[in-house]
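Hi all, posting the design record for the shared folder.

TITLE: backbone redesign
STEP: 1 of 1
STRUCTURE INPUT:
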């Protein structure tokens, strides 16, 4: 029988293995382990994405459930909230996690489990395009808000300095944690 057709190289027990036989066994073992590691990595990435996605939806629901109340405490009367607005305008994709809206005002909320500086910067850029992305709301005054469970560094203070409402998800509700004299910036 041809040795190349065997899954494992034949090594007689009564003779020492040749260098070529050992080398081939090593290569086959390496190939098998590499495939197993790749499969394990793929499964871990799938589970991580599922966990992150579900965790993000939970935080969004937590924030959205109390959003009307926390905004009304800041004298922003909202009639309804909308979750997960997605679209494509002029070849550019966009997504907004939560929008709180009434006839004159709209608050766009970016929700993160952990708020980072780059999240605040990215949201700031995206918020400037909101009226381009959603021309049906072009006549409304737009405010931005970031909501999170935890904030890295000073990302929450940075968001406030950029004129965003800063909403911390706490327990079974959410609360705006901006200073009392905070004035939101209209976009």
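Okay, here is what came back for every position:
SEQUENCE:
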């Amino acid at each position: 029988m041809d040795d190349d057709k065997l899954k494992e190289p034949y090594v007689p027990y009564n003779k020492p293995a040749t260098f070529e036989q050992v080398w081939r066994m090593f290569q086959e073992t390496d190939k098998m382990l590499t495939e197993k590691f790749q499969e394990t990595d793929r499964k871990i990435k799938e589970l991580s994405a599922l966990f992150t996605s579900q965790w993000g939806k939970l935080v969004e629901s937590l924030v959205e459930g109390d959003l009307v109340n926390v905004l009304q405490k800041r004298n922003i009367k909202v009639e309804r909230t909308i979750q997960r607005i997605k679209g494509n305008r002029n070849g550019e994709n966009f997504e907004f996690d939560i929008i709180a809206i009434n006839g004159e005002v709209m608050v766009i909320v970016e929700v993160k489990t952990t708020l980072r500086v780059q999240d605040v910067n990215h949201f700031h850029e995206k918020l400037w395009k909101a009226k381009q992305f959603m021309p049906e709301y072009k006549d409304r005054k737009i405010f931005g808000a970031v909501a999170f469970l935890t904030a890295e560094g000073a990302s929450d203070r940075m968001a406030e300095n950029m004129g965003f409402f800063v909403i911390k998800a706490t327990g079974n509700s959410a609360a705006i944690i901006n200073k009392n004299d905070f004035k939101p910036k209209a976009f």
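COMMENT: The chain is about 40% helix and 30% strand.
Let me know if anyone wants the other runs.
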